[in-house]
Design a protein that fits this description.
Two copies of one chain form a homodimer. Chain A is an alpha/beta fold and about 625 residues long. Chain A folds into two domains: about 450 residues, Amino acid/polyamine transporter I; about 130 residues, Rossmann fold. Helix content of chain A is about 60%, strand content about 5%. In chain A, β2, α21 and β3 form a beta-alpha-beta unit. In chain A, α9 packs across α14. Chain A is elongated, with a radius of gyration of 32 Å. The two termini of chain A are about 15 Å apart. The interface between A and B is large, with 93 and 95 residues. β5 of chain A pairs antiparallel with β5 of chain B.
């Protein structure tokens, strides 16, 4: 019992509990300090999602291409170039959003404001879906980096992924906004080691090319063609690779976190991030192809791990650092969703499209419900798809590209409305962005549909209907509770009080005493399930009942609640708005919680039965046992 | 919503619902008619448990013996004779109980009355445990009869057993006391076909013996000795075979169900049952041995099925009738526990050793909670032991023999107390019964211990502690609620009412109106989690608050409940017994149940927080939405 009431006992705020141990003491509202980020820190905070996708993007392109046999692999390079071009377009497009929405221009806000409710909700549904997928994909890929370095862990990948999701969830429930510095370490470590690997690799490739000095090449795995090299297959490979673009929008959501001048700093950070992303993605793709490294479906070793092992040498410290940095940045990428999902949910809750609970700030100043929901949903995905990145990829990025298209279209619309100086060029840039991402979205929908994208495309309208149903309900409630249309209720002239009793004991007398203090029209009722006991109750009532009338209600079917409901319905004249009926329920409260199970739960049934009847009040009168 | 309240809506008693479809309309108390049974019907009702055990008892003896190799099988016959002798002793002993307790002398009643509380509870714990095992063993053996006739069903035995348990549970929740005739058919069918098989078998054996005409004998399966033929093994085989004795006590529990003269009719039925049981058990054991039939661990075919197939011929109608009758009587045997377990539980609940809910008579005039509990526990056993009779046997009958011993000892004690004419002989008979069953119980405990009996022996004391803890709690409650030690509480002189509000709307005004009708000392409180909203609430309150004071409670940690608890604690002077505080909670009730999820569940938290504080009343004031 003690533990349950802990939260409500003022004296015990600081007492030990598992909850406090895990997520920390409550923080007061005044403790919400906004830490402003320098560009260097901001890159670390916002870039992990985008940069980390280089850990799997090249591999996912190749995994599709090898379906047409090993010789199709050479297409990876032109596809990577196409994706890089797309990235440049998207980055320029978002750079404009940053300047237009210096207070934060997430896709939902931009779309809602410029294109209206339904497109806005579509963007929101698409984004929330992709946040869940980002966690599942990133954590799965992070675990793959770990199991590539230490293969015996491969069978435990689902458990490991769930552990990491749980850990991130817990950290976010504690609140990790003080984490700019913490973020910086793995992100810069990843950038540094990745650039070191690409530099070393390029140098060795150059030496190989120019001097003809033989390099020990890894054995090239040969794949038989399972199908022809169709345009569809090439577009599917392109779609898989577009996962590299996810996370590019992160900076435009978080502009207020930058040091002033916010918009300028954010835009510069975006350009830096895009440059790094293109460098790393193209570098990995180029070197893998040149060194003949292809995905290995037997050992489950990732492409980046194979590349790192080849360039740095098997068992070298640099190789292990690469794997560690890859794993950490992927887990950080998942963490990004843990701040984006709850924030977008809370914005939707504020706009009354999501349950109000998603807008509640927990006692650690975070949107706890959003964090927990994201943790549960992404864990479910990991279990369903068995922690395999490749199986999740067909679902991934569909939502992101839908939201890209919508938000860039919203920007175009905005330029046409505002017509600020130079709007034509800006509209053109956003228009190209919208067009390019829109085409890619359609390519996604077509090429990934049967591989899993159908789930996302089916889910988004369901999600939107949910938003709208919630919104309608809140509007209904607000209208019905509104004071505008109606005055105060009439004063109560007649107050009837009913005290249901099962026996005559001290708890009953306390309730009766209370009943007599609130009205002079009190009736006790005894539901007779066993006629042999009635006489005894009547006799006791005569002695202790304080002169109050006792009605005996027969219950031929032995139900305790039904005769009481029937009685109250009879005495409650619904036409009289100035009359109320109160049921005063004697309740004894045992000391130990399990003692409750030893008593009939009639009070709960009575509450449930009357909650749905108009105008009947139910008062609990507790009588505390002390043993 | 509709479905949940069905039970409480008077108009809807007869409305369609799944519950009504499955278990039928409620029955009124007046509909409880007692059907008196003739001896023929009574044998059918009470004998199924005892007779059905012949379906597996011989096999269980042999399964232990073959551990010492096939040549040990010949010991089955002398062991069966020993068990038959024990049965005669037990039957005579119980015959005396019947005459001494003509209103029903179950082991708990006899032991409790003559030996005291603790032995009585031991008998009760032992019996309840064995009822659960009876269901698991009988249904498993019944399913084995079915899968022996149709082997492809063997892999589905657990699902089949669970289906049968569910079916029996459902029938018992409907109430099947009108079932004397229904019981008669499978029981007499089983007796008839079993006797027919034994008669045919004996005739063929006789022909074989005397004329030397060769009989096509089934191939005798040879078992290698895995261990020596020790006394321990022989006693273990004996213990397994004693499962044949379970159910012998059933008649002495149900004497009032007989037509008058009840005791005489019951005693004669007991003798008839014991004779049939001995005939069938010895017959099966004798013929199996003579025809060289031994348990077949490869095909999972039961011994009785093999015997029937040999005597009646494979694929014959008689063979299939035998299997059908065996299955049916075993399921009937399980059904017996479904009346015994709830009845004993209700007696224990009446004596306040079990939670009072086990004494509730459901709307179909049955002890529904006992039935459901038994169904769940036996299903769990079936799942744990994978529906294999042999794995359950070591746990079985331990409890029965413990209760036999206790109740026969109780009878001895009784004769010494009463000293009615001829008491010495009666005491001697019960004494022999008590001694014999006591020795067998010790043999059980020793030989079956490591094979599973330890679970039962460990469980029984746990169960007794539970009985005693429950009893102590009920006594504590009765003492604390007693009116003897204290008078009526003092009349209430000061009544403070607190109305917590989150906003000012129609529901709040209804609650405020109610609060003003029960006291003139009303305060509204607003817990301030977001200071930017406070101004608006204060302004609205000024317009609509009816002049009532509004206190703003700061909540730095954004908890809604804690500041309220703190406030109430401050105003509630616990030293003044004539003062009460009521919290009047405005609650709006949505139309659809899922709409509830869209609102903060603060009301529930407030209820939970105050239920454990002395003297604070909580009143729900519902405001019904209509959309």
């Amino acid at each position: 019992m003690r533990d349950d009431t802990l939260l409500y006992e003022e004296e015990e705020t600081r007492k030990f509990s598992l909850r406090r141990l895990l997520i920390g003491d409550p923080l007061s509202t005044a403790q919400a300090i906004h830490e402003r980020l320098t560009k260097v820190k901001a890159l670390a905070v916002f870039a992990s999602d985008a940069l980390s996708s280089t850990a799997y993007a090249t591999e996912e392109i190749m995994l599709v291409l090898i379906l047409a046999g090993s010789q199709a692999i050479h297409l990876a390079w032109p596809l990577a170039l196409a994706i890089a071009t797309l990235l440049v377009i998207v980055a320029f497009s978002y750079e404009q959003t940053i300047h237009a929405y210096p207070t934060g221009g997430g896709a939902y806000i931009v779309t809602h404001e410029n294109l209206g409710e339904l497109p806005g909700l579509t963007a929101a549904a698409a984004l929330l879906t992709d946040y869940v997928l980002t966690v599942a994909v990133s954590v799965s890929a992070g675990v793959a980096a770990l199991t590539s370095a230490y293969p015996p862990l491969y069978p435990y990948r689902v458990a490991l992924a769930l552990f990491f999701i749980g850990l991130i969830m817990l950290l976010n429930l504690r609140g990790i906004r003080e984490s700019g510095t913490i973020f910086a370490i793995p992100t810069y470590m990843f950038i540094a080691i990745m650039l070191a690997m690409l530099g070393t690799g390029l140098y060795r490739w150059y030496v190989l090319k120019t001097t003809g000095v033989p390099l020990p090449m890894p054995p090239r795995i040969q794949y038989e063609a399972q199908q022809g090299l169709t345009l569809f297959l090439i577009l599917r490979a392109f779609s898989s690779g577009c996962a590299a673009l996810t996370g590019v929008e992160a900076i435009s959501d978080g502009i207020p976190a930058f040091k002033p001048p916010e918009a300028k700093n954010a835009a510069q950070t975006l350009i830096a991030m895009a440059s790094l992303l293109i460098t790393m993605f193209l570098g990995i793709t180029f070197l893998s192809y040149q060194f003949g490294i292809v995905p290995n479906e037997m050992t489950h070793e990732t492409l980046v791990s194979q590349l790192g092992r080849f360039i740095f040498g098997d068992g070298s410290v640099m190789y292990y650092l690469l794997q560690a940095a890859t794993m950490l940045i992927l887990i950080l990428a998942a963490n990004t969703s843990f701040s984006d999902f709850p924030r977008l949910s809370s914005i939707l809750a504020r706009d009354r499209y999501m349950p109000t609970q998603f807008g509640n700030i927990g006692d650690r100043l975070v949107f706890s419900n959003g964090i927990i929901t994201l943790g549960l949903l992404s864990s479910a995905l990991v279990v369903i798809f068995q922690g395999e990145t490749t199986r999740l990829i067909p679902l991934y990025a569909v939502g992101v590209f839908l939201s890209f298209t919508l938000s860039q279209s919203g920007m175009v619309r905005r330029w046409f409305k505002l017509r600020t100086p130079g709007w034509q060029i800006k509209a053109a840039i956003n228009g190209i962005g919208a067009f390019a991402t829109g085409v890619v979205f359609l390519v996604f929908a077509a090429t990934k549909f049967i591989y899993g994208a159908w789930m996302v495309l089916l889910w988004i309208p369901v999600f939107i209907s949910f938003f709208l149903a919630v919104h309608r309900h809140y509007q209904d409630v607000a209208r019905q509770l509104s004071l505008e249309s109606t005055g105060s209720p009439p004063p109560i002239r007649r107050h009837r009080v009913v005290v249901p009793i099962g026996d005559v004991h001290r708890g009953v007398l306390v309730a009766l005493n209370y009943a007599l203090s609130i009205s002079d029209d009190v009736t006790a009722v005894y539901v007779e399930t066993d006629p042999t006991k009635t006489e005894k109750v009547l006799k006791k009532w005569k002695a202790w009942g304080n002169g109050v009338r006792l009605e005996v209600l027969p219950s031929p079917y032995r139900s305790l609640v039904r005769p009481l409901v029937r009685y109250v319905t009879r005495i409650d004249d619904r036409r009289r708005r100035d009359q109320v009926v109160t049921i005063v329920l004697p309740q004894f409260v045992p000391v130990k919680w399990w003692h409750r199970l030893l008593h009939n739960q009639t009070a709960i049934l009575i509450h449930a039965a009357f909650l749905f009847r108009r105008e009947v009040m139910v008062t609990d009168v507790p009588f505390h046992l002390h043993q």
